[in-house]
Design brief:
This protein is α+β, with helices and mostly antiparallel strands and 253 residues long. It is built from seven helices and twelve strands. Strands 3, 4, 5, 6, 7, 8, 9, 10, 11 and 12 form a ten-stranded mixed beta sheet that branches. A two-stranded antiparallel ribbon has the order 1-2. The longest helix is centred in the C-terminal third of the chain and has 14 residues. The mean pLDDT is 92.
């Protein structure tokens, strides 16, 4: 199921929110191509290793696609574009015409922070991820490469949340990450270990991060969920999140 949708977002609102979100999950190398934002970070995560297609490139779209291809190829990375909708339709058509494949939709969800409940379990917050936290964050189900830590801390004062029910060296039960940009708290890297699922830990992490963000002036919460992740969408629907817009990735052959 999908959370209750907002009315269709305007393209300029989508672009503004995507650029704001990009400040909380950065590439280790970034460069502008007109309005587009090129990002590279050793291949870890799509957001840090794709061109964010908002606004206009400096020339015709086919030339921009060629420039993006050259930029990522020079860094040993597969050329990839993050295409938010609405707003990215023309660029998406140009990428498709160049033979770039399309991944599944990702939903960008938002909710007001005051609506979040109090955390029901103890959640530890830290300014940097320790080894236990890094082991608990399973990006696409796999252990993190060494460069991942640099990507995770590449934001203005991020926070790293963790839940532990058994003392170390036992693994953490759940982890999550938050960063504030403007009036938005952006939650990422939310991971609940297999042994700790269906205990409300994702709700507790979201609540603890929401409280942290509200104390820093945030009034809204933003997170991204794959459109096919039914359990996560059901959870966030219960927490009052609604769909603001979508994006997908295009990748060169």
């Amino acid at each position: 199921m999908e959370p209750r949708p907002y009315p269709r977002a305007r393209a300029d609102d989508v672009a503004a929110l995507e650029l704001l979100s990009a400040r909380t999950w950065r590439g280790l190398e970034e460069e502008r191509l007109g309005d587009w934002l090129l990002r590279a970070a050793g291949g870890i995560t799509g957001r840090a290793n794709s061109v964010l297609v908002v606004g206009r490139p400096p020339g015709p779209l086919p030339d921009a696609v060629d420039a993006v291809t050259a930029w990522y190829t020079a860094r040993g990375l597969r050329p990839r574009a993050q295409v938010p909708l609405p707003g990215g339709e023309e660029a998406d058509a140009a990428l498709a015409a160049a033979g770039w494949s399309r991944d599944e939709d990702v939903l960008v969800l938002t909710a007001p922070l005051p609506a979040q409940p109090a955390a029901a379990v103890a959640v530890d917050l830290a300014p940097e991820p320790d080894e236990a936290w890094l082991a608990g964050y399973r990006y696409r189900g796999a252990p993190l490469p060494a460069v991942a830590r640099d990507v995770l801390v590449a934001a203005d004062e991020p926070v790293f949340a963790a839940v532990r029910s058994v003392p170390a060296p036992a693994p953490l039960d759940a982890v999550g990450r938050g960063a504030v940009a403007g009036e938005h708290l952006v939650i990422t890297a939310l991971t609940v270990a297999e042994h700790a699922r269906r205990r409300g830990l994702a709700t507790a992490l979201t609540a603890a991060l929401a409280s942290w963000g509200a104390a820093r002036g945030a009034t809204s919460c933003l997170l991204q969920v794959a459109a096919g992740n039914g359990p996560a969408l059901a959870l966030y629907d219960r927490l009052g999140f609604t769909v603001h817009h979508r994006y997908h990735y295009r990748s060169a052959a």
